[in-house]
Amino acid sequence: MVDTLYTYAKFQYECGNYSGAAEYLYFVRVLVSMCSLQNTQEELHNYTSKIQYLRLVRNEESQNTNNVNNIRGFQKSKFELGTNNV
Asked: Average pLDDT of the chain?
């Protein structure tokens, strides 16, 4: 749509309708800036989502490491208790 509007503005300019071309180019500029802003907001949302996902994964890995360490500690203490009784 923006390309078509730009092409029409160029056509207006080439026909000598400079004020009409300027008006269409204004709308082209507005639409392009809106598209750029929307893309920027979408990219920001994507980066934020990725950061949240990485934090979640890191927290899960940390919890899993703590669980493994707790199990190892429990097994070690159980083993030590078993050897002390012998």
From this structure: 77
| DSSP SS3 for 16 | coil
Query: 0.70 exceeded by the pTM?
Result: no
DSSP E strands in 16-69: the ranges are none
DSSP-based three-state secondary structure for 1: coil
Q: Is 9 exposed, middle or buried (0-12, 13-18, 19+ CB in 10 A)?
A: buried
Residues 53, 59, 62, 64: is their CA dihedral positive or negative? negative
For residues 22 and 12, the answer to whether their CB atoms sit within 8 Å is no
- Region of residue 76 (phi > 0: left; psi between -120 and 50: alpha; otherwise: beta): alpha
The three-state secondary structure class of 8 is helix
Contacts of 13 (CB under 8 A, 6+ apart): 21
